[in-house]
Amino acid sequence: MDELNDKTLEQIPIPEGLEERLSAKIDEWEQEERKQKAQCRRLLPSILRYTAVAASIALVFGVGYHFLRQDEPVNLAEQDTYQDPLLAQQEAERALNLLAANLNKGLGHLEKAKALSDKAENTLNKQLKALK
To answer: Per residue in 68-90, pLDDT tens?
Structure first.
């Protein structure tokens, strides 16, 4: 079979200058590829340069802002947000009730998901037992 293909291929006429044209085209593709790589090499350092400058500027502004903020007095004493203790208690209870309601709602969804998971697991186990 291989001999037949080789013989058939040898009988096909090759146009004149085909090898030169193919070599020229391959060389042209290689030159284009080199140009693209050179452009990429030139572009990358400039991007890195601009990125480094931007990072340096951000760093200088950040350090300056930090030192300016250190000069301001800091009030470390605790402050009550409510002057009336009864109002503060009511607001805390309201917030805790809201938290409990949302937590219970989430737990309800979790129980539904667990029930579905258990049902799927039981079905899978039945199918596996049937295959044995």
So the answer is: 887 666 565 556 677 888 888 99
Measured CA distances, 4 to 1, 12, 13 (Å): 5, 13, 16
Pair of tokens at residue 111: 């129980």
- Phi and psi dihedrals of 29, rounded to 5? -65, -40
Query: Among candidates 65, 98, 95, 69, which has minimal Cα distance to 82?
Result: 95
CA dist 81 and 32 (Å) reads: 70
Contact between 43 and 51 under an 8 Å Cβ cutoff? The reply is no
- Token pair for 124: 């899978």
What pTM does this model have? Answer: 0.31
Alpha-carbon span 78 to 87, nearest angstrom: 18
Helix, strand, or coil here: 100? helix
